[in-house]
């Protein structure tokens, strides 16, 4: 592929990047506080696994369906404006929901609609920020940003749930939801003043009949790029199966706390904080250690460890809540160990002008089966219980992690694609944007 991926980064890159980064961090904190409050409200109001799974589906389906289109459009649009509009739409949706709670008009389906709209805006925001990051940060600092982002997610996981439980006790729910509107302003305001670079189009694109390719052509180009990479396709198929089995378990965690551990919002917050501490520890470990020389082997170890944590959640007796906390910590610790190397391989190997399409395509393929799993898990869990999904998901994840060691195309994935358009893998870890969904998610 003819492309110039060495676009110049300004000397004051740190001021520009971290001005946006801190704004996004505040916005994510607000969103996670509100997400915690809404999920617990649905749990208490309905006590239904089906309702919780449909709330998760409302947040996942737009990411799956819109991702390929969003990626193609982001590669064509101004990324700064895209992020501003996406954040603005999410803030307006939160404001409408806060008004419904304040007037006492809110229904369960209102929450589903708002979650769906917010997910649609996120489908455009994430690839815009993700694809911009590699053009805003010098290559020699990419690994530091990687570790910083992983630690941010861990820190937010630690504080968001307890803050959510606390503010629910202190202020009305409509005020809790309105927090998201305020924190969104921290994300939008810096974008008025900070320059966000645009990628240069490839030489091959510039030479095409003087005509800009269609959005459909851009989407097909992204698919061909990924489909020609056998190792990446195998990883994505395996991630799809794992997400099919594991995502429902964590979507139903509030119900597990309420029914099996006889807990309240504070206990749910304790479990989510344990995962947050684990993610912080895993991110710090990955940043200091760096993983094995062949980075994908680190992912295999992470998969096995994450599966053990998920399985442990499923077999923990109701009387041993501390054991459940440990299980969540283990699963959280292994999450960055699993996803960090995969994201690093992809972002360092994919050409800048292709990143919007490739990242969203990867995300949508990985999440493809999650809605189906959630649709089955909800009604079935009302009959057989939530623990079943943790046990099945944990076993499947461990097995996948072991199998990966014996699949040559996966073991050698970071050697790059085998076709003529392959890009060399740079020996440095690429950043994982703070809003980036994990390829293998929990």
Please explain how this structure is put together.
- The protein is an all-alpha fold and 442 residues long.
- It has one domain (13-200, 214-415): Up-down Bundle (Growth Hormone, Chain: A), CATH 1.20.1250.20.
- The chain has 17 helices and no strands.
- Helix 5 (142-170) packs antiparallel against helix 11 (265-289) and helix 9 (230-251) runs parallel beside helix 15 (370-384).
- The chain is globular.
Q: Kindly, what is the distance between the CA atoms of the first and last residues, rounded to a whole number of angstroms?
A: 35 Å
In CATH terms, the superfamily is: MFS general substrate transporter like domains
Whole-number total of structural domains: 1
- Overall shape: globular
Mean pLDDT: 78
CATH architecture: Up-down Bundle
The structure class reads: mainly alpha
- The oligomeric state of the chains shown is single chain
The proportion of residues in beta strands is under 5%
Describe the sheet with the most strands: none
User: DSSP helix count?
Assistant: 17
What CATH calls the topology is Growth Hormone, Chain: A
- CATH top level is Mainly Alpha
Proportion in helices: over 70%
Question: What's the order of the H and E elements?
Answer: HHHHHHHHHHHHHHHHH
Give the low-pLDDT segments: 1-6, 203-209, 419-437
How large, in whole angstroms, is the Cα Rg? 21 Å
Compute the number of strand runs: 0
